[in-house]
Amino acid sequence: DKYSDLTEDELAQKSLAEAEKAGMETAWDRLQDQKPQCGFGETGVCCNRCAMGPCQADPFEEGPERGVCGADADLIVARNLLADITAGAAAHSDHGREVAEIFQAAAQDETGGSYGIKDEDRLAELADIFDLGGKDLTREETAKKLAQRILSEFGTHRDGLALTERAPAETREIWDELGITPDSIGGDLVEAMHRTHMGVGAEPANMLLHGLKIALGDGWGGSMIATELGDVMFGTPEINQSSMNLGVIDEDKVNVIVHGHNSVLSEMVVQAAESEGLQNMAEERGAEGIKVVGLCCTGNEILMRRGIPMAGNMLNQELVLATGAVEAAVIDYQCIFPSLVESADCYHTEIITTSHKSKIPGAVHLEFAPESAESTAREIVKRAIENFSERSSNRVNIPGEPQPVTAGFSLQSITEALGGSLDPLIEAIKTGDIRGAVGIVGCNNPKIKQDKGHIELAKELLQEDILLVETGCAAVASGKEGLLSPKASELAGPGLRPVLESLEMPPVLHMGACVDCSRILKLAAALAREIGVGIHQLPLAGAAPEWYAQKAVAIGSYFVASGVYTVLGPPPKIFGSSEVVDLLSSGLEEAVGANFAVEPEPKAAAKLIIDHIESQREELGI
Ligand code: BF8
């Protein structure tokens, strides 16, 4: 039927039918309304940066070749791309800074006990990297000093980012030679926006090198800080069992969705919902309890650390409302459709915004602040309970049963599962039982059948004995398909399968939210160090088969700048400039030893990746 053309997720197909019945518009409808999309925009040659414009440079030499300021297609494309990387890196880094600010408030005992230190080993690891000096410091002193040091990296100093030291020397040398070693997270981002202003940068290659620098500041800075401090405060993920898809919504319970990205909110909502008082209140109102369910990356955060079930990925955000059984959807920021309040109007669901950065007209706003986090979280859950009586039972339609998943793969939990060191993994890579590893990451994009890009690429690679690590919406696509279960190891090739079976591991390791792509960097860096090479020499690759977000552009850029060959599904908006296309393919290969490729068709993308991995192996002599 028409729904099965839109999404691979069978429960989503059923919910799409429900949504249509309810008169709820979805992203797929809106994409249809937008067609045909603007060719100038698609190829990146439209510039709307200043009041002399908007301008377009015609890549086909039929119209004007320069904007009013004199920028040609190459510059317009490079400037737009730099602006996209900046927006993405800023989104991750602002999130990271918020986590750091809460960590500081906790260290200074200003959160009324809402936040604290759960993983002391990780705190010690960070104290070491940030060279805080002195084993005599108390835990509290260490935390305070660390918070200060980390926050200074967001703006007030330009001495580099401590966490980049995790990268192997061979990789850091490449950055130094190119001048793309980040100086400061905030400073580099401000400079990036400066460079995109009219009359500043006019050399595409120079602009794009700065793009790599801010991307590295995201991966090895802003995002990594979000991951690390999240682990310190809420615990480093351990392997756990949970479930995924729209079927996790529980008809008998008060359902609270947490949607967005920041663990400092979702963790508190989970804690509040666990409290006996609120559970009792829910029962008094006729429910069997409260169920917190995640969506998108904040869902990934609480799945990783607490085994909380997930309703789905980005394109499931409207469909989950069509179950008719969601009392409240609590959001912070990023990847939240601005039309979500209107979608919710078709049902009793209340949309609750929590950040002054991310308000939606018509939503209830309860500002989340460190000093009142616990009470705000309780208030949110209370509102959901009160809303339970507004649910119309005849409109409840939960489309199927949840899929079991295994999640919680951090560098620590992977190392532990391997018996205390990465050696068995390295050995299996050397013998060729495992040919290499690929990080499949990123979003959904309605231009691609939901989840199909992720799932098909994953299956192709697994049968070639390639181990997969995933984050973000890609990991959720795999979860819904059953690939996050040890059972799915039967899809792996003859080398990989016995390795997985002996460890009872799934063939796809869920490593967390998009900011946790930093876990993939950390794993890659650890492997490279063990083997004694740069990251660009490893048999690794990255893929973003259904990406939509500027954040994904930043992630792709730091993967490549770190030495990881990366294949994109949807084409980036660069095809109006042959210079930029050349720079991102051959130019980057020369500069950082890795490049981008674009291939929306999963089998063809798999072929590119397999060929790359085999040639890396050959060069390593394994
Ligand atoms: O940071 S994968 S659609 S939810 S941007 Fe967004 Fe993309 Fe999903 Fe999380 Ni990431």
From TrEMBL:
Residues reported in the UniProt entry to bind [4Fe-4S] cluster 1: C38, C46
Binding site for [Ni-4Fe-4S] cluster: H261, C297, C335, C443, C473, C514
Enzyme Commission (EC) number: 1.2.7.4
Reactions it catalyzes: CO + 2 oxidized [2Fe-2S]-[ferredoxin] + H2O = 2 reduced [2Fe-2S]-[ferredoxin] + CO2 + 2 H(+)
Domain of life: Bacteria
Cofactors: [4Fe-4S] cluster
Record key words, sorted: 4Fe-4S, Iron, Iron-sulfur, Metal-binding, Nickel, Oxidoreductase
Gene Ontology process terms (BP): generation of precursor metabolites and energy; response to hydrogen peroxide
Binding site for [4Fe-4S] cluster 2: C47, C50, C55, C69
SUPFAM superfamilies named among the record's database cross-references: Prismane protein-like (SSF56821)
Region spans: Disordered: 1-24
GO molecular function, one term: nickel cation binding
PANTHER family per record: CARBON MONOXIDE DEHYDROGENASE, HYDROXYLAMINE REDUCTASE
Protein name, per record: Carbon monoxide dehydrogenase
Species annotation: Halarsenatibacter silvermanii
